[in-house]
Amino acid sequence: MIGQSSWDWQPGKRRIQEAAACSSDVVWMEEPVASPDGERLAVVVNLEDAVFGLCVNGELLEETFEKIWGLGFSPDGRMTAIVSREMEWTVAVEGVPWETTFGFVWNLSFSRSGDRIGAAVQQEMSYGVAVDGVPWPELFDNASNFALSADGLHSAAVVQTVSMGAADIEAFQKGCYSIAVDAKAWDRSFVNVWSPVFDPEGSRVAAQSRQSLYDYTVVVDGTPWDQTFASVWEPAFHPKSGAVVAPVRSGGKWGMAENGTLVWPARYSQLWHQAFDESGATLAAIAAPSYGRFTVAVNDRPWENSFSVMTDLAMSPDGRHIGALGKEEDDWTVIVDDRPWPGRYDMIYPISVSPDGGHAAVRAERNGRFLIVLDGKEYGETFERAWDPIFNPEGDKVLIRGIQEGTCFRIVAGVEDF
Amino acid sequence: MEATAEKAEEKKYVDAGIQKGLDALTPEKVEKAINRVFRAETGARLKAYEEICVRCGLCADGCHYYLSHEGDPAYAPVGKVKQTLWKLLKKRGRITPEELERVALVAYTECNLCRRCAMYCPLGIDTAYIITVVRRLCHLLGITPRYIQDTAHSHSVTMNQMWVKEDEWIDSLLWQEEEAREEIPTLRIPLDKEGADIMYSVIAPEPKFQPQLIYYAAVILNECGMDWTMPSMPGWDNSDMAMFTGDVELMGRLKRSHFERAQKLRVKRVVMGECGHAFRAVYDVGNRWLGWRDFPVEVVHAIDFYWQMLQEGRLKVKKKFERPVTLHDPCNIVRGRGLHEKARDLVRAFCSNFTEMHPNREHNYCCCAGGGVINCGPPYKKVRVEGNSIKADQLKATGAEVVIAPCHNCHSGLKDIIEAYDVGMELSFFSEIIYECMEKPNAVEG
Amino acid sequence: MHQVYGFVVGPLAWIAFAVFVLGSIWKMYTMYRSAKTRDGQVLAYWNLKYALRSIIHWSVPFWPVNSRRHPFMTIVSFTFHICLVLVPVFLLAHVMLWDYYHGFRFWSLPEGAADVMTFLVILACLVFAVRRILLREVRYVTSAMDWAVLAIVFLPFLTGFLAYHQIGPYRVMIILHILFGEIMLAAIPFTRLSHMLLSPFSRGYIGSEFGGVRKAKDW
Fold this sequence. Notes:
A: five-stranded antiparallel β-sheet; five-stranded antiparallel β-sheet; C: 80% helix
């Protein structure tokens, strides 16, 4: 999230809006969405047959549409939705549609600061990406797996570079897919290429690829690694050296390769979702040291606690604290630095880490009620519905957004209030 | 006259997928792949099966191909193992292209991996597993029938089996939602609803060819008052033909995409449509390759879900379906997941005139389409239809007008059999009958 | 002749037992190691409850559907396997040998019963042989090895039966009987007869999968 310093961090609880209220008569409404700063509550409302509007803090916005989906907020707090009129689709920002319309729009994505909004688009059955309403100058037979760089200045997608007939397996196996960055496809095409990933500066792109039906590798800026593997997962860039690391499968086990060379020996039943800290000194990943048992491996050292399912790795910027979510039977818990929190929950959402790395907080669900949990301690109030907690820049306060008895509240709590 | 199936091969349809692979093979390549599959990728299980099989032939009656071919031994499960695994182990790199072609045809088109024969072997040998390993080898050798290979290609690009593009998928959901609102004005197909109780997933033929099935499911989920969602992004397709071509790496990629989509949406469970092989892929095969012992997210088959809705009183019967029905037990959800009694509870709740087919439950005959056989395409339709005359006999004997087949593959396979043998039956999914006969409190009177 | 007899009941017997025992241990160990290193899932899904459920169902004649489809084969097969195990272990003459050489004795079968059981094994072997020739699905998959294994099982019983009834030259027959018995023992870990060691695991594993994962019957 962006701009937290300007938000209201006065401790206390403030009523925002009655969740089901709207200034106009509505037939029915969808579930509301809270803005990051907790000041606004937005909802899609049905006004009459095939007429939909957006209601923000109870006020119906002027523009209405035939269809609306994907309502949300950008990191800088702007309300976004995918909207349609007369079979044309576009993105509405604060209820105002982009001037350009498309055959279809989906997969909204934001720059880190939220100042740029990208989307996958289809125009007259050609495919590409549009950023802030401006489509790529050149579109493709197909484009998918769209990604936006952190600064939002560059966009990439998997594109089809060669047309294929129905069931033309020969053409496919010669390679018909590549990555286009800012509408320009790499020189080489591949049998498959998946999920482009930008480096932090947005200047380089890495992706998983299949060179033949059997040889998987990582392609960086169009050039594959020299080594191939039985499979690979998403690559990640080292934040300082620019080296590319990816989990690779070899001899029936998974290890971590850097620029094509194994740096963690292939000894895991599973290894994925790797992440670096800001300095690049710590590399952590979700790993299964033995069949069916998952944990976190930090610089190739697995934790002692293991779970049947493990997700959502999170790391403090300095890499000193690492958290993840673990599930055993139907119970979820948070594990930070190899120590599970005491609470067990029916569901836990991704971990928020305070900017100084000193605290971790999550939204969790138990018996249909939502709670906010910080460093293993539950906040005293529960909610019918809640959103993820957000730390203030100093890391000593948490913004809690939730609905109680039909009303949305915004609560600022100190970390000592838990 | 020993083995007519072997001789019947003389007719010769040249499968571009298999032929292309055969042309590129050398004895060294074959030897290398054999070593990889039999020495590195498999272990005690295959070795034990190979070694302890006493060649008693008692598995023969387990196979619908065998029963439909007047006891032609080449169609007995052990006969198929002889033509594939034993031959490969014996000849290794010296196996001829003709023999290899036969290996591929047996593995891909003459076995549905239905596991019925596993219940007929006194030693508990799982022939479907052996054939799966053979398919793995065929994949590594690049001798996969063209149409199923194309399906695997589609999976690899789009994460769905029908080349459905990202926008086409969302558009079909929005379209079905719009259609359904004519009947139920408040109906929603909620896209990407984080924290919903249920993610509903389907196989790609639904948005491509049978969108009404999504409509029916949406009506049922809505009228039962469920908190549910469907994902806008890939991971919505639970099907997995890569599992059947032997491309386990791709299979894992698909299953990861499906499960991680559900995890990301924070749903408690995935409810999947009436498909069998997809269920096998999630509960039995794909999850294992990824290292998950059980479901990372609980997956509930449509039958189980409808049954739960019925038990909880959320799903209410408004009128009974009166035409005489029978029920086909799909392998992957009955032998594969024990849902046969729940299926019968549903039939009894919604249908007034139900006749069992015999044999039934775990011992039901396969549809002969599953295991990827139907996905090998039109060239092998004859193999499927001739290989399952026993099914036609079994269906006819019920005298029913409608056969409920809660699996897409079974549906398509039975359709061909019903036509070819003039059985004169209609096919139905549970969702069609439930949609027709349930109470819809939010529907407009019309 | 006496020296030959002394050899087959002495050193050769030791060798046969050693091959059987050590071979069986080796077999089980390599199988376990292979399962652990290359088939980890087999161990992960092994479930004793469902393994036993499957073993018990298949140990009762006419419980599994397929055993009802082949009633004659079911009777022959159960009779064969029961006699095949009981006769060599509990035959009075064998028990006496244990007593004579190692000084311990245990319960033995009544002689008449043992004689009948031996005859049943011989008959069953003949049934199996006829099946191999007459039934297409069996003939199609029969190789020389299958005949060899059948002979390995058949010969010790045949020679034992002939010796007991003093048909043919007794001393030759008894030596052949001992020799064939030793061959059978030594062959167990290294031929299809290893199903004696491995079938509880193959049966148990499919039972574990059907019961534990697939929630269905496997009989």
